[in-house]
Amino acid sequence: MKIRDVMSKDVQVARPNDTIQEVAARMAAGDFGFIPVADGENLVGAVTDRDITVRAVATGAAPTARVVEFLSRDALVVRADDDLKVALDLMSSRQVRRLPVVDKDGRLVGVVSLGDLSTRVKEKYAGEALEEISRPS
């Protein structure tokens, strides 16, 4: 099974010049803690609720600060045509729960989460991945 078969396609995307307050409000309204940041169709990075809290709020950033200042650049990505195991292995090794999904041309086409994968792979693999992701680094 391929990542495109389980990924979320209806993805909220932030733009580099969005403010951290705007992005945080969208996260709160949508009840999610991760949002890819794209300039057009090109992925620039990703920002999490933790990034906003630790990198922005904790350092005294104004609510009007641009999200581009606090995002994780070089976001880990998987391709839509990768096997599910590729995403699980990457999530485990890098201790992340969500990954942007890109097409063969590098355009953002979705997001895959550990939850998406856990419904489609053997329980053993999802459990092992969660254990690795949750392990203190």
Outline the structure in words.
It comes from Brevundimonas bullata. With about 140 residues, the chain is α+β, with helices and mostly antiparallel strands. The chain has a single domain (about 5-135), classed as CBS-domain (Roll), CATH 3.10.580. The protein has 5 helices and 6 strands. It has helices at about 20-30, 50-55, 85-95, 115-120, 125-135; strands at about 35-40, 40-50, 70-75, 80, 100, 110-115. The radius of gyration is 15 Å and the shape is globular.
Summarize this structure as a short list of keywords or feature phrases:
137 residues, alpha+beta, CBS-domain, three-stranded mixed sheet, 6 strands, globular
Instruction: Write the element-wise H/E pattern from the N-terminal end onward.
Output: HEEHEEHEEHH
CATH superfamily: CBS-domain
Please report the total strand number as a whole number.
6
* Number of individual domains: 1
Number of H- or I-type helical stretches: 5
Overall pLDDT metric: 87
Structural class, by secondary structure, is: alpha+beta
Placed side by side, the strands forming the largest sheet appear as 1-2-3
CATH C-level class is: Alpha Beta
Shape: globular
In the predicted model, the low-confidence regions spanning at least 5 consecutive residues are: none
What is the fold named in CATH at topology level? CBS-domain
What is the CATH-assigned architecture? Roll
Radius of gyration: 15 Å
